[in-house]
Amino acid sequence: MLVKNDRISEIVDGKRVIVKKPELLAPAGNLEKLKIAVHYGADAVFIGGQEYSLRANADNFTIEEIREGVEFANRYGAKVYVTANIYAHNENIPGLDDYLRALEEAGVSGIIVADPLIIETARRVAPRLEVHVSTQQSLTNWKAVQFWKEEGLERVVLAREVSAEEIRQIKENVDIEIEAFIHGAMCSAYSGRCVLSNHMTARDSNRGGCCQSCRWDYDLYQLSDGREIPLFSEGDAPFAMSAKDLNLIRAIPAMIELGVDSLKIEGRMKSIHYVATVVSVYRKVIDAYCADPDHFTIRDEWVRELDKCANRETAPSFFAGFPDHTNHMYGTHSRKPTHEFAGLVLDYDPETGIATIQQRNHFRPGDEVEFFGPEIDNFTQVIETIWDEEGNELDAARHPLQIVKMKVKRPLFPYNMMRKEN
Amino acid sequence: MKKPELLVTPTSVSHIDELAEAGADAIIIGEQRYGLRLAGEFSRSDVAAAVETAHRRGMNVYVAMNALFHNDKVDELADYVAFLAEVGADAIVFGDPAVLLTVRETAPHMKLHWSTETTATNWYACNYWGRKGAKRAVLARELNMDAILEIKAHAEVEIEVQVHGMTCMYQSKRSLIGNYFAYQGKVMEIERKKYEKGMFLYDKERDYKYPIFEDENGTHIMSPNDLCIIDELGDMVEAGIDSFKIDGVLHTADYITEVTKLYRRAIDLCTEDRERYEREKEELLAAVEALQPPHRRIDTGFFFKETIY
């Protein structure tokens, strides 16, 4: 019962090239992040509306902002998907029809959904929306995927617990688009099967209220004849279930050869600096591999680049096999990224070589900074003089969103970013 | 007035007769290869014996196939479903749609109960799985009484509600206990210890103890208290809830039997002599409290709680 999947590569002029290039799908927590993600090379973004989406604490989009986001993305040929992946309670049913119709009308390409209530309602009231099954359904086998295929859905996001081999088997057995996570924070539980947050803080994890209890420390004991025996020694870090973040940069070639249709970056709560950095690295990896898969190598600079915005250690999780203890964090559950976002380039004057920059973190003359962006190769320089908009010299750019000017040694483009080492 | 079914979890085949005496109407059994967080491990021959015993005592037998299956087990689901049909199990409890498709192909007359623990949160979803073939939905434990009653009012399938015992807060495929031992360098202890019973996580801030265990399905973390609403059954009985479940996972056979007796009494009183139930329900609650192991308190779970998000 093997189905024929799309051809992945072809020989062109004696050289193999990838003809089935996967979609690079990026998170966008607000309109600014959406624009950055698309500008830095995402083929599609996923966003949350005001309702029905996990991440209740993200900024989230109004319908008007969604419309603007879609228009912006369409100019780049990119798509916008909206997450509506809560497990709804009865009280969430009223208003759903109108919300889904509004998404369809705003030009959204599809929705990412877990609850059959939302799946069927979308089919009924907003049939032009593609429906993708969310990772919240924890799809772990080909037959479960086949069920959703038979329900007429276009795409499934697999559980983060499936391995490369399992993805291959699913692809072989079911002809449906597969979306898989490649980068970002991980639930250590099966998604949708964790209610720690409900119990510990009365916040509903499956409706976006997750308080991340899995990032806390606990002490492990054993009850034996009524006595509580600690299963840790003095000096051991406490028990933790905290998973390192996913980082599959080295597995991208494998994912492309498996025919995965969409490669997904997690992180609607992350900054524009994070989104820009991660998207641009994966954009380069995918493009380089697809152009010449047989002579491809991962460049160290790409790996280092991801490290510049990583606030946790990373691991390949289930993709390469069963995660051992090195996939977890004990004692400390985060770290400082090696770099911090310093400024966003608004403009550059080629006549004078002066860039206009919006401050995002404190910087001053003498700081060494690095510029990056889709149009340029990364370069570093030491900041010389900084002026304010009126041309007054400043001893530092210390106000958030302050507009300053400075001389840069190479041409820059709007949306390029400036970062400095922590 | 319609009596809801009293559904309980035996720890072994020999426990079933005791539970029948205690007044249970149905049992849920299975093995960890296919089922999640069971009170006892029932091999195929145990299942066959359990069905025989239970049917002789007029009880229904539901078998758990509610694990999240990976590809490696998909091909063997049909064989297990065929076996369950052959020995006469009364229903299969499932969460993964792979089981639903397998039952359609292998034993289309087998009854299905939809049970995912955390995701049965609205009446539409219950009816959806009903249209796909389920006869019953087992509600999420994170619902309050009003939500449960509203679901029942709209439900086209039977509704099962857990009224007593531990609930699952977290399931990971990861080997969290084994990994922690490995992190501590206690390599020799991993295989011996990680499957042992009686482990718990201590949460200093809340002064809670969460039972934790590992099995073939990964790592499970359970609620710090046992749910108990033996004194709050009235509204659900009146609404016609179809099944009340006592979950005995991580409890002893004696405890499960004694709790079953108390709920038998509560359901009988509540349906036959409501005034007397109202008078005696505090005593029933006190009797449950007296049965609790020293480290396990009881509470009302989410029945009277508001969650925000």
From TrEMBL, chain A:
A Pfam family hit: Peptidase_U32_C
Keywords per UniProt: Hydrolase, Protease
Residue intervals of the Peptidase family U32 C-terminal domain: 338-419
Leader sequence residues: none
Domain of life: Bacteria
Family: Belongs to the peptidase U32 family.
PANTHER family given in the database record: PEPTIDASE U32 FAMILY, TRNA HYDROXYLATION PROTEIN P
Protein name: Peptidase family U32 C-terminal domain-containing protein
Origin species: Geobacillus icigianus
From TrEMBL, chain B:
Superkingdom assignment: Bacteria
InterPro entries: Peptidase_U32 (IPR001539), RNA/ubiquinone_mod_enzymes (IPR051454), rSAM_sf (IPR058240)
Protein name: 23S rRNA 5-hydroxycytidine synthase
